[in-house]
């Protein structure tokens, strides 16, 4: 019995590790669910209220490194105010999509965090399933003209956008995962609450995202 017990424990550990890895790599889900989710990304309308857009491309190296199976990247411009906003919506397996947060991605291009990361909530205050986004202030100070960005980002696998603190754990069992960045260049040293273009844009965009990405909900 004393010889069998360690062997049994070792087998259990191996099996459990395989199951966890299977969920993270989408081994146990059907490829059809992921393909359908990726196809819905391409159906997102190009106009959002007064915002019109032009498509931008990501290079193949970035797509492969980030595990992105489908995406749309657009620059939106408000035809009334002239404000511009960058939006990136990606889809893929939960493992790679849950990582590569903006603080890591933008650091490689010279940006650094210039304040604390906070959480923004969209929807009625009493709604338990309101959409939440991380708000991230970043700046590139070493450039000739200093640039400051406000980035909102969140994940979605069931209809509501979530600012998760542990996305790899929270979405591990999903067959697909969406992630969205909304990025706006702001006045150096300014505050987003003084010019809430990105907030207005997100509020207008969310209903369209819901209809496009989760049409049966």
Counting DSSP E segments of at least 2 residues, the number of strands comes to 8
| Number of structural units classed as domains | 1
Sheet with the most strands? Answer: 8 strands, antiparallel
Summarize the amount of helix as a percent range.
25-40%
Round the mean pLDDT to the nearest integer and report it: 84
Outline:
This protein has 217 residues and is an alpha+beta fold. It is built from seven helices and eight strands; from the N terminus they run ααβαββααββββαβα. Helices cover 31% and strands 28% of the residues.
How would you describe the overall organization of this protein?
- With 217 residues, this protein is an alpha+beta fold.
- The chain has one domain.
- The protein contains 7 helices and 8 strands.
- Strands 1, 2, 3, 4, 5, 6, 7 and 8 form an 8-stranded antiparallel sheet that branches.
- It is globular.
- Mean pLDDT is 84; it is low at 5-26.
């Amino acid at each position: 019995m004393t010889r069998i017990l360690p062997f049994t424990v070792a087998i259990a550990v191996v099996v459990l590790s395989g199951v966890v890895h299977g969920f993270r790599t989408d081994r146990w889900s059907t490829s059809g669910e992921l393909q359908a989710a990726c196809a819905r990304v391409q159906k997102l309308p190009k106009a959002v209220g007064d915002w019109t857009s032009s498509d931008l491309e990501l290079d193949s190296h970035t797509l492969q490194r980030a595990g992105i199976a489908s995406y749309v990247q657009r620059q939106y411009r408000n035809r009334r105010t002239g404000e511009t906003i960058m939006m990136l919506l990606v889809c893929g397996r939960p493992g790679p999509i849950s990582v590569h947060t903006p603080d890591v991605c933008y650091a490689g291009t010279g940006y650094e965090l210039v304040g604390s990361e906070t959480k923004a909530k969209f929807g009625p205050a009493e709604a338990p399933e309101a959409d939440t986004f991380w708000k991230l202030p970043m700046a590139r100070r070493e450039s000739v003209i200093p640039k400051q960005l406000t980035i909102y980002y969140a994940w979605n696998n069931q209809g509501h956008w979530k600012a998760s603190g542990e996305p790899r754990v929270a979405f591990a069992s999903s067959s697909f995962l969406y992630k969205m960045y909304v990025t706006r260049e702001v006045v150096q040293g300014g505050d987003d609450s003084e010019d809430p273009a990105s907030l207005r844009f997100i509020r207008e965009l969310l209903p369209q995202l819901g209809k496009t990405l989760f049409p049966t909900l």
